[in-house]
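Researcher: We plan to redesign the surface later, but first we want a full-length starting point. Tokens attached.
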């Protein structure tokens, strides 16, 4: 069982990034999938989740800027991040929840002003 996140990097404020998370060894269809982030010195916080039915939920700070999507056939979950701000700088973790909870290894996103 593994979640592999990718797509992080450095971007200037106002820019965009798209994170991907690919799963292996797990059943994706019924799972709750999501993205969380953790900035230095702060607790891990919710970014976005998406249910098996496609219902989405976003943290207040990213509403209207980020979009979460999933592709069950590819066992993938994505996070489209637009209008990035310096306060979005964090390590981003993908999350899988079905029978057990799993986390990806994290991908660093750095937004410069």
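Model: Full-length starting sequence:
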């Amino acid at each position: 069982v593994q979640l592999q996140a990718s797509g992080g990097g450095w971007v200037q404020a106002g820019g965009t990034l798209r994170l991907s998370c690919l799963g292996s060894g797990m059943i994706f269809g019924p799972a709750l999938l999501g993205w969380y982030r953790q900035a230095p010195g702060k607790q891990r916080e919710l970014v976005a989740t998406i249910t098996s039915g496609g219902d989405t939920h976003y943290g207040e700070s990213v509403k209207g800027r980020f979009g979460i999507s999933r592709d069950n056939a590819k066992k993938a979950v994505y996070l489209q991040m637009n209008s990035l701000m310096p306060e979005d700088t964090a390590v981003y973790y993908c999350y899988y929840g079905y029978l057990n909870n799993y986390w990806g290894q994290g991908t660093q996103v750095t937004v410069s002003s």
